Amino acid sequence: MAERSCCTVKRVVQHVLENPKYYPGPHNLSAPRTTQGLQQLDTTRQMMLIWDALCQYMQESLEGGRSVNIPYFGAFTFENSLHEDGSHPSNPRKAAKHSRPCFLVDERLKKNLYRYPGKEEIRVGRNDHSVYQSAPRMEFLNVVPIAAGCYYTTKIVTSAITQFFKAVVDLAQRGYNVDLDFGFARVRIFSRALQVAFARRLGDTVNKSHVRTFTPEATSATWKSANLSQSMVGLIERPQSAEVRARRNRTKHLGVMSCDMCSITLQGRALGATA
Fold first, then answer.
1. Residues with Cβ < 8 Å from 187, sequence gap 6 or more?
2. pLDDT tens, residue by residue, 150-204
3. Distance in angstroms (rounded) separating the CA atoms of residues 83 and 256
């Protein structure tokens, strides 16, 4: 079964929704949106929308040099190393930081990957105590911006993401092949081994952000401006709730009026027949 079955993102979503007993939660029902300007979606499209938002949010975080940890699945992070870049005006031999994207498997998933080499993605070298060699800041997945971008409550988003990756662990345990395309990376579980391929543009974008600016940023700049997720702000165009509400009311009123006209016509025909 493992050789002939490959579960893509949509098939994992269908597996979760077809087994509510093993993957309970509010994601199994079509949930109302947090704005009246958007219609409810069926459960499959609901989870696929959350998946798309998850991928875009994680890509934005990684391009900003921030690591992201997903429970039951693993962490997307970077391995830092030092290279001479010659960009410093007074010391051309000064080293610059170079980041290589990597994936650290969660132990709950790793124990099912019998053929996974198990080597450490982040190597410890002689420069490990350097401040530039330290690992990037690790963050647990924040569902608040994802929920805001999808116009769902955090309860729905948390349930959908948690049960999705629990299903990935269960499928790997049962010997299924899993192919997850995140956009910035592709994670494949084949024959109980793990393969991760990152997009080239991810490493290039992160290393460009490490170009040194020799004028340090003021501390007050960290709280003067709002730190909003731009990918989630533009995920769905903000609906005009008042206009949509008025359009729906007009449609309902037209439906009521059409019913009255039909009843009047039928009554008129009946009276003419009796006369």
1. 103, 178, 179, 180, 194, 195, 196
2. 999 999 999 999 999 999 999 999 989 999 999 999 999 998 899 999 988 887 7
3. 73
Taken as a whole, the chain contains a residue count of: 275
Residue 69 clears pLDDT 90, i.e. is over it? yes
Q: Model-level pTM?
A: 0.76
Structure tokens at 158: 């948390």
Q: Which two tokens stand for residue 3?
A: 């050789």
Partner residues linked to 248 by β-bridges:
none
Structure letter (DSSP) for residue 47:
H
CA distance 122 to 103: 9
Long-range contacts of 158-163 (CB under 8 A, 24+ apart): 159/25, 159/26, 159/27, 160/25, 160/27, 160/46, 160/47, 160/50, 161/50, 161/54, 161/70, 162/25, 162/71, 162/72, 163/16, 163/23, 163/24, 163/25, 163/27
| Euclidean distance between CA atoms 78 and 136, whole angstroms | 7
Here the tokens at position 259 are 């019913």
State the Cα angle at 180 between 175 and 183, rounded to 5°. 165
